[in-house]
């Protein structure tokens, strides 16, 4: 029998959140079944593992053909190459190392590839999502610049990150290539960045401003509705919670951009509050530094554009193209003289981008 072409391979995927597991399957960069969601049972290892097995069994039943691999996102710390999941803060059931990948390989007789959600989200956006779409739009506008590097950030219960450089997913020697959540917090040097860029950060600031003990009773969507005047509550406190979130996020993005020169795309549920946190985020990203004697200098060596603002997209796309004569030659060369990057929101959505990233990662591994 003739083997399947690369784009015909069917890959089972899972987006593993602390609350829910979302299962689906991908073929030719398209979801081929409707996602199936189950509670994750993050505190009970037996129930959690049985739910993962059940989810993949349900996906297999719904498939139009035979599956070729399983590839999915799962939180770390982990040894992803070996499929071993470590001690997880949001999955209390996983302690002392759980050989999740080998278990699934044995159960389903399929190759299994695991990575974290930040990596796979970014890989999906880099290969089949925002990055190729952006480059196509630039060409359609008449621009000549093309972007090859992408930083992906997931905003939700936690603060995740992935980095793709010229089409290659950055993987660390210890499966720790982009642990943005553990970088320094702008507001408190004793905290990591996630304490100001996460669901609990928005909840914490709101509770502090209204003089209440910390509570998870109000979710970011509730606080967004209060800030927007759609729900009763303390509107100034709600607005301040998103302002601080945006400023903390902007600080992390600016630090990343000093190391990785590329486009930033945001995913996750909190991106719905973009109008409330984006102004503070861009203000922080584009602010000046000062020397010890008060002389200002730009924080970054390039301008960071709001790629959600259609009013400035043409300026971003076109840049400033110049034609220079080559010294000692009759030739001239064209180049774009304006260094710039931008920040945007995922159009695929985090779950679909993660699924497409998992599919691309599986195909890459199967080709080896």
Structure description:
The chain is α/β, with parallel strands linked by helices. The chain folds into two domains: about 110 residues, Nucleotidyltransferase, domain 5 (2-Layer Sandwich), CATH 3.30.420.40; about 160 residues, ATPase, nucleotide binding domain (Nucleotidyltransferase, domain 5, 2-Layer Sandwich), CATH 3.30.420. It contains ten helices and 19 strands. The strands form five sheets. Strands 1, 2, 3, 4, 5 and 9 form a six-stranded mixed beta sheet that branches. Helix 5 packs across helix 7.
What is the strand and helix layout of this fold?
Layout lengths: L10 E6 L3 E8 L2 E2 L4 E4 L5 H18 L6 E5 L4 E2 L4 E2 L12 E2 H9 L3 E4 L1 H12 L1 H12 L7 E7 L3 E7 L2 E2 L29 H12 L9 H8 L7 H23 L5 E5 L6 H12 L2 E3 L5 E3 L4 E4 L3 H9 L2 E5 L6 E5 L3 E6 L4 H17 L2
Parallel strand pairs: 1-5, 5-9, 10-13, 13-19, 16-19
Antiparallel strand pairs: 1-2, 2-3, 2-4, 6-7, 7-8, 10-11, 11-12, 14-15, 17-18
Shape: globular
CATH class of the largest domain: Alpha Beta
Tally of domains: 2
CATH homologous superfamily descriptor of the largest domain: ATPase, nucleotide binding domain
Distance between the termini: 21 Å
Q: How many β strands by DSSP? A: 19
CATH architecture of the largest domain: 2-Layer Sandwich
> H/E series, N to C?
EEEEHEEEEHEHHEEEHHHEHEEEHEEEH
Structural class: alpha/beta
Mean pLDDT across every amino acid position: 92
CATH topology (fold) name of the largest domain:
Nucleotidyltransferase, domain 5
Percentage of residues assigned to helices:
25-40%
Q: How much of the polypeptide forms β-strand, as a percent range?
A: 15-25%
């Amino acid at each position: 029998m003739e083997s399947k072409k690369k784009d015909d391979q069917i890959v089972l995927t899972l987006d593993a959140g602390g609350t829910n597991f979302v299962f689906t399957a991908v073929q030719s960069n398209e979801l081929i079944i409707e996602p199936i969601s189950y509670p994750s049972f993050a505190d009970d290892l037996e129930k959690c593992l049985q739910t993962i097995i059940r989810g993949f069994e349900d996906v297999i039943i719904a498939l139009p053909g035979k599956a070729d691999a399983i590839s999915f996102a799962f939180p770390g710390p982990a040894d992803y190459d070996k499929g071993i999941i470590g001690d997880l803060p949001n999955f209390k059931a996983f302690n002392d190392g759980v050989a999740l990948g080998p278990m699934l390989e044995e159960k389903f007789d399929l190759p299994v590839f695991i990575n974290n959600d930040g990596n796979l989200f970014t890989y999906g956006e880099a290969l089949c999502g925002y990055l190729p779409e952006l480059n196509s739009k630039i060409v359609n506008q008449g621009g000549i610049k093309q972007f090859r590097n992408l930083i992906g950030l997931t905003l939700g219960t936690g603060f995740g990150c992935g980095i793709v450089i010229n089409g290659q997913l950055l993987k660390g020697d210890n499966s720790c290539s982009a642990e943005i959540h553990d970088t320094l917090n702008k507001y408190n040097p004793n905290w990591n960045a996630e304490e100001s860029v996460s669901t609990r950060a928005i909840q914490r600031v709101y509770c502090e401003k209204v003089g209440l003990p910390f509570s998870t009773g109000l979710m970011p969507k509730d606080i967004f509705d209060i800030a927007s005047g759609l729900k009763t509550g303390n509107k100034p406190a709600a607005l301040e919670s998103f302002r601080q979130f945006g400023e903390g996020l902007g600080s992390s993005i600016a630090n990343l951009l000093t190391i990785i020169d590329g486009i930033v795309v945001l995913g996750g549920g909190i991106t719905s509050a973009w109008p409330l946190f984006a102004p503070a985020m861009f203000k922080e990203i584009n602010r000046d530094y000062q020397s010890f004697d008060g002389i200002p200098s730009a924080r970054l060596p390039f301008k960071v554009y709001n790629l959600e603002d259609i009013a400035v997209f043409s300026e971003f796309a076109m840049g400033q193209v110049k034609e220079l004569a080559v010294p000692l030659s009759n030739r001239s060369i064209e180049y774009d003289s304006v260094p710039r990057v931008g920040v945007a929101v995922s159009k695929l959505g985090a779950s679909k981008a993660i699924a497409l990233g998992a599919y691309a990662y599986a195909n890459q591994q199967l080709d080896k």
